[in-house]
Amino acid sequence: MSIPVYTVDAFTDRPFAGNPAAVCLLEAPRDAAWMQSIAREMNLSETAFLVPHDGDGFDLRWFTPAVEVSLCGHATLASAHVLWESDTLGARDVARFHTLSGVLTAARRNGAIELDFPAKEVLATDAAPGLLEALGVEPVFVGRNSLDYLVEVANESVVRGAVPDHARLRRIEARGVILTSRSARTSEGIDFVSRFFAPGSGIDEDPVTGSAHCALAPYWAPKLERTEMTGRQISERGGTVHVRLEGDRVMLGGNAVTVMKGLIV
């Protein structure tokens, strides 16, 4: 039986920007090895697999070309977009996803899609051996959570100009590394900027990382004295993530655009 697969650009309102994800709509579960093979074939930062969950939303799993991951924002946003676009869900329905990070939801709000994700608080820590040398930056702050290291630097120019040594970063024991600073474009409504590197997960630099904003929102909220902010991930493709901190949850807002539809035969 042929399986529908979509390629969706997430956290953007135009094609060929933001972060592309593949979304596979399955009628029944498939084994992890098969899903990993499909993700390797798609060769995008994440491929999402959706299976109906006993009348209560969908089971959702995410795979990079190399590994399964426990949390992914852009492929969740892409999955919700596909469910509405394909009329699998009604226009006013809330998408419910059962994942390795618990139940996550997506809803349409103010012309965009808003995800309800867990906050991932960052605690100050010593840099892992070789981390700063691999990034080639002077830190203002180094911290980490259960997923990633977060390194704040002096300004946006440092974030933009960083040329990491991905081979050395691959030896860091973490899902990835968030590099961030205050924005130089606050007049344009951008509060902070970031880049995300995850060579250990098979992705040297991720274009736009929703799950990284689960750390960036609680990190920047007290510094900026705001609970609603806009982050810009300044990768080559670039993307915008609107965040709203609500206790131990982070609302991640963005748009998505389908760029390709096909079948896995």
Describe this structure in words.
There is one protein chain. With 265 residues, this protein is an alpha+beta fold. The protein folds into two domains: 3-112 and 254-264, Diaminopimelate Epimerase, Chain A, domain 1, CATH 3.10.310.10; 123-247, Diaminopimelate Epimerase, Chain A, domain 1, CATH 3.10.310.10. The protein has six helices and 18 strands. It has an 18-stranded mixed β-sheet that branches.
List keywords for this structure.
6 helices; Diaminopimelate Epimerase, Chain A, domain 1; 265 residues; alpha+beta; 18-stranded mixed β-sheet; single chain
Quick overview of this protein structure:
By secondary structure, this protein is α+β, with helices and mostly antiparallel strands. 19% of the residues lie in helices and 41% in strands. It has an 18-stranded mixed sheet that branches.
Write down the overall geometry: globular
**Overall pLDDT confidence:** 96
Give the class-level CATH name of the largest domain: Alpha Beta
CATH superfamily of the largest domain: Diaminopimelate Epimerase, Chain A, domain 1
Strand content: 35-45%
**CATH overall fold name of the largest domain:** Diaminopimelate Epimerase, Chain A, domain 1
- Structurally, the number of domains stands at 2
